[in-house]
Amino acid sequence: MENTIKIKSRSVWSDAWDRLKRDKLAMVSLGVIIIYAVVAILSATGLLAADWDQKVGESYMAPTTEKISLLFGTDIFGYSVLRKVIHGTQIAMSVGLISTLIAIPIGISLGALAGYFGKWIDEAVVWFYTTFSSVPGIMLLMSIAFAFGKGLTTLYIALGLTSWVGLCRLIRGEVMKHKNREYVQAATAIGAGNGRKLFIHIIPNVIHLVIINASLQFQVAIKSEVILSYLGLGVTGQPSWGTMIDDAKQELAQGVWWQLAGATFAMFFVVLAFNILGDALRDALDPKLKGK
Amino acid sequence: MDWLFRMKKHLAILLLLPLALVMACKKKMSFDEKVLYQVASAKIQGFDPVFASDAYSSQAVGKVYESLYQYHYLKRPYTLVPNLASAMPEVSEDGLTYKIPLKKGVLFHNDECFPNGKGREMKASDVAYSIRRLADPKLQSTGWWLLENKVLGLDEWRKAGGDYSAPIKGLETPDDYTVIFKLKRPFPQFLYALAMTFTSVTPKEAVEKYGEEFLNHPVGTGPFTMAPYEQNYRIVFEKNPNYRQEFYPTEGEESDAEKGLLKASGKTVPFVDKIVLQIIREPQPAWLSFEKGRVDMFGIPKDNFDKVVAPGDAITDAYKEKGIVLHISPSLDITYIAFNNADSLFKDNVHLRRAMSLAYNIDEVNKLFYNGRTLKAQSIIPPGIAGFREDYVNPYREFNLVKAREEMEKAGYPKGEGLPVIKYETIASTTSRQMAEYFVKSMAKIGVRVEVSTSTWPQFIQKVNTKQAQMFGMAWGADYPDGENFLQLLYSPNGAPGSNGSNFSNPVYDSLFATSSVMQDSPERTALYERLNQMAAEQVPMIYGVHRKSFVVKHGWVRNYKYHEFSQGMEKYYDIDLEEKKRLYQKM
């Protein structure tokens, strides 16, 4: 009797995932990011490079393949540069993750409120973020770092609080477009309230922007951490890629290049991977680019 | 055809361009005139002696201006000799009155500010005028601290607004060639003040004629005059034709004869015709200029150290071949990590301070941060100054973790139990951060937990000045070669915001210091200095660091060079061997 062919309905997510899978470069990037994430987790749980503050040799030993810990040589105190790079990965990834997690809720909520309600709320939010973003980013970061004292927590907060504007703008615009669409009108017709319309109907339809934005935000945070630590405003008391590059500034004249190389390559690959993945995600998730 | 021709012309220009550039770089070096090429890493703030507070400005001022006294070029320890004064002063019994005779026939530079452009004779009134300028409240000199609260009536004159015609009790000029200073209380270091560039003698005419431009238009009595200011980064000085007869010293340290430093004995100075001072901010380009022979002498940047200095403190062969000579001399300074002795944690707990000192391995610090070339400090006075004793070993200076742990128990914090986290203040620079990391690591070994707080330099100073810094790293360089200048760092009335940032306060130390500070140089005073120095060592108000050394390289053609801690105006003794320069310059 039943002749109808069952077509499994495909969600936008599985559709996007299929498209992403086809992009080999994006998959490699995803793999790289997963490796960095695993390294960071292992380091955070003390399974990897927990002994970064132990001497493994004399100061400034050149890289050798004799021992794994000497693969990238040693620094001024005779610490293993490889272990410092690994510990730096933990710092970088945690800064990326936590600051992005701080920025996203702020960006979404302010953007959605402004876009949905319009009028004075919109004006207030727009005024706030234009004022906020007219302050040069690095100055803002420095003043937050000075106000709260230096350290990792400050870095999370500072980077989180300064990087929500882009997402907020994006969400505001999208929500404005969506709020008069048919599906929202339909929801209104069946008596849905503002909260329901906004959170159950509109936001799931713009959430892909958040994912794209987050993957790009992540690498900006990593770079900012490195710059701030290089300027002496970031991490203290533990190695980070930024402080390693700061060390290298003086060591280079003596021919000690391995700290610079270790930190730079570690940063290079993860930032590149996030950039490629971010672009691929945009291709996969943004319906306007579908089929192109 | 036409375009081909044109192209050829362009090609020719293109081909010539690099050649022209090369020629521009390899500017012709003149070998007919004795020119001394110097370099400074910061802009000169101007040539007004009363504002010459930074090292580079006072170096520049010292070429053009002179003070009443100067340091002997060769003798060590540093000794004062007359410069514009004709003899050492007559000091009264009570140490309050200084009668200073002046040289006759000292002429100012020829300058438009004088009638007919001829420099007139320098007289006692010029000395009095220059001292008044230093105290002038309208000028806000950066060197006023030097005479503050010292000369009778000078502070009152300053408070009254600085009327140049009003008399000052402690500053008299009975005749044209005598100046008498009367002090409020004995200040045996007073003569050192009269050897600093701040107290250089300036003529009233020039100040009045040039007004604010006086800053860029120096008129002094010194061995050199400044040629018109052309560029900001290149200042030329020429030999002063009016310069009186001054001679190269005939005696020095024992080793000076052997080093050839006495060959010029008794000859008339200055030797060089011209000094070219170049301002190059970054150490690397300045270093390259030195290597090319376009700068005659230079302090070695830390990063180039291994390239220049071979193990055993000799110069590397590559540089030796070029005739470059290395001069290593101790600097009159000390580095230290201060405890804030006003902090309840450290105040009455000498054992805690000793424990932390014992846990800090200064030999390792020396190796890691100073290329292994410093002397570890046993106490506060550096070598080369009375009060320092070579044979003195501070029992709390050594690196001894066993002893450190014992002291921790005596301090009431066995293994660090119950001790709150200590905050260490430092500035945001690479080396400072690394030093802080090393300190944290060292203290962890005896259970002392340290947290590092990084600031900018002004913030750091403010924390020290408001007694908020619990511990901090610092260095102190001598203003003048007297132990008093170092011992005062622990004198309690000098507590923050004064120079005693450690806020160390000890009644016995204070009273002994007060006694010594009014004594003239004598074996008794030296004994007192030694006693104070030892007290300072054993009370451990700070973790003593190192006494640094200066590493200067110079080219083979520079003659008579000897490192001098207070080198303002010493260029008059340098000489250039043009034959040698012609020969060595080819190798650059």
Report the structural category of chain A: mainly alpha
Provide the CATH architecture of chain A: Orthogonal Bundle
CATH superfamily of chain A: MetI-like
Element string of chain A (H = helix, E = strand): HHHHHHHHHHH
Tell me the Rg of chain A in angstroms. Answer: 23 Å
- How many strands, what sense, and barrel or not for the largest sheet of chain B? 5 strands, mixed
Q: Which two chains touch over the largest interface?
A: A-B, 20 and 25 residues
Q: How many domain units of chain A?
A: 1
How many helices of chain B? The count is 20
- Which value, in Å, is the CA radius of gyration of chain B? 27 Å
CATH secondary-structure class of the largest domain in chain B:
Alpha Beta
Could you say what the CATH architecture of the largest domain in chain B is? Roll
At the first level of CATH, the class of chain A is: Mainly Alpha
- Overall morphology of chain B: globular
Walk across the major sheet of chain B and give the strand order.
20-19-21-17-22
Task: Profile the largest sheet of chain A.
Answer: none
Unreliable parts of chain A: none
Overall average residue pLDDT of chain A:
86
Helices and strands in order, then pairings?
The complex is a heterodimer of chains A (292) and B (588).
Chain A: H1 12-22, H2 24-44, H3 81-117, H4 119-134, H5 137-148, H6 152-162, H7 165-178, H8 182-189, H9 194-230, H10 241-251, H11 258-285
Chain B: H1 2-25, E1 35-40, H2 55-64, E2 69-71, E3 80-82, E4 90-91, E5 97-101, H3 124-135, H4 154-159, E6 171-175, E7 178-182, H5 190-193, H6 204-210, E8 224-226, E9 234-239, E10 246-247, H7 254-258, E11 268-269, E12 274-279, H8 283-291, E13 297-299, H9 305-308, E14 309-310, E15 314-315, H10 317-321, E16 325-330, E17 333-339, H11 344-347, H12 350-358, H13 362-369, E18 375-376, H14 401-411, E19 422-427, H15 430-444, E20 450-455, H16 457-465, E21 471-477, H17 484-487, H18 507-517, H19 523-539, E22 542-544, E23 546-547, E24 549-554, E25 558-559, E26 575-576, H20 578-585
Parallel strand pairs in B: 1-12, 19-20, 19-21
Antiparallel strand pairs in B: 2-3, 4-5, 5-7, 6-7, 8-9, 9-12, 10-11, 13-24, 14-15, 16-24, 17-21, 17-22, 18-23, 25-26
Helix pairs in contact in B: 12-14, 18-19
